[in-house]
Each structure stands twice: as structure tokens, then as C-alpha cells.
Specification:
This protein is α+β, with helices and mostly antiparallel strands and 178 residues long. The chain has eight helices and eight strands. The chain has a single domain, classed as Aminopeptidase.
Length: 178
């Protein structure tokens, strides 16, 4: 018996996909977005996702499907795309939760400093997440391969990401992922 093929497709600007994006983003961040925004984190991120031109936009995401069902997601962007992004859609979607986000700004200073120091020409991999029941089936590897190809297509020499909130993880775009 062979495993069913994984299909990758660009994200679409719908609230349903925004809610999935939020869930995957929170899983990849080990619950940080729920801690930051509270139980309504999905609605906040889902609403922000609908607007173009920022780091949490549908423009940054790709979904992996197997058997016509979304089973994973990756999100990333170039340093140039990040420089041109705005946090206004997230602020607008967060509304009064901005007070809670202000507290996170103090806690998350290191992450913000890291993202601002991603050198020109690098690709920032914000998140890769796969449904629990689909893990080990190659979906994560497929999403990483896609991210590497996207980085390469934008002329990026490296992919960088945060691991456990503080570590820069460079991935040479010419090497295999283990």
C-alpha cells in the first residue's frame, strides 16, 4: 500500500483558512499565540490573515493537503517582504487585546530583535506544522522542501527560523534536511 500524494497549494483569503492558519501557527509556536491573545487567538489571527501585506497574511502561507483535506501548513517570507509588512491588520483584529499584546511586546523583545536582524537575502520560516495524525507521513518534509524552493526562487541564500523562542537556525538552501 502506498501513501497518498501530498498536494501543496497557496493559502486563500477566507476566514475558515485563517482559523486553520491560526491553529497551525499556535501549534508551531507551542501555544505562544494563545498565551499572547487569549482563547480568541484564532479569531484575531484569522481576521488579520485576511489582509495582505503583513507577516501573518494568507500571502505567506501554503497548505498541504492529502485526500482533499488540509493536513499541514508552512508560512514564511523574505527579509524584504518583512521590511515592507505592517502590523496594523493584527492590531486592528486584536482590538482591546492590544493591552495583552503590549505585555507580550516586553516579553517578546528578543524575538522582535531577532526578526529585525534577519540579514537581507535571508528567508524567514515562521512556522511549519502538521496534524498529529499525519506526522511521520512526509508532509513536514514536503513543506520544508517547498519552503527551501521558495527561498531559492527569491534568491535567498539561507532559511532562518526561531527554535524554542531564541535560537537562530540557519539552513543552507543547497543542503538536505535531515
Amino acid at each position: 500500500m502506498t501513501a497518498e500524494a501530498v498536494t501543496l497549494r497557496p493559502a486563500v483569503a477566507t476566514l475558515d483558512e485563517g482559523l486553520l492558519f491560526a491553529r497551525y501557527l499556535n501549534v508551531a509556536a507551542e501555544g505562544a499565540f494563545r498565551a499572547l491573545l487569549g482563547g480568541d487567538y484564532g479569531q484575531v489571527i484569522g481576521q488579520a490573515y485576511l489582509s495582505p501585506g503583513h507577516d501573518l497574511s494568507y500571502e505567506t502561507a501554503v497548505f498541504a493537503e492529502r485526500s482533499g483535506r488540509i493536513a499541514g501548513m508552512a508560512s514564511g517570507y523574505t527579509s524584504q517582504q518583512h521590511e515592507q509588512s505592517s502590523d496594523e491588520p493584527l492590531r486592528r483584529a486584536a482590538g482591546l487585546r492590544m493591552l495583552r499584546m503590549a505585555a507580550f511586546s516586553v516579553i517578546g523583545r528578543g524575538m522582535k530583535r531577532f526578526i529585525k536582524t534577519v540579514p537581507d537575502g535571508d528567508y524567514y520560516l515562521l512556522a511549519v506544522a502538521v496534524d498529529d495524525q499525519a506526522r511521520g507521513s512526509g508532509i513536514g518534509s514536503t513543506l520544508l522542501d517547498y519552503s527551501e524552493a521558495t527561498a531559492r526562487a527569491h534568491g535567498c541564500a539561507r532559511i532562518v527560523s526561531m527554535s524554542q523562542g531564541t535560537t537562530l537556525v540557519p539552513v543552507n538552501c543547497t543542503s538536505a534536511v535531515g
